[in-house]
Amino acid sequence: MSGREVDVLRDAYGSMKAAVIHYIAELAVDLAPKGVRANVVSPANVYFDGRVWHNIERDNPELFEASVALNPTGRLGTPEETAYAVVVRASPRASRISETNLVVDGALTRGVPL
Asked: What integer pLDDT is reported at residue 92 of this predicted model?
């Protein structure tokens, strides 16, 4: 999400994410003749025990609830949902999919991806 939109933090994190997306697109073009695909999977807020959103839920429940409320699905993502997106892109059945950024965010990000 931070690679596509200017987020609330407005720090170097989003710029670095955008740079990774751009770099992977360049790699996809360079490596395509060798049969190598390159894609990005961009998950938004993924919840799992012991990590950042778990800690925010515990230490700052107001921020957690506000963040969850921003997502049209009414929840954060799961590691399994993100992993599924990666597996689908890595599948041989996705052999024509390269130079893409798959946003896995439950419709959280706004705008049309370019």
From this structure: 96
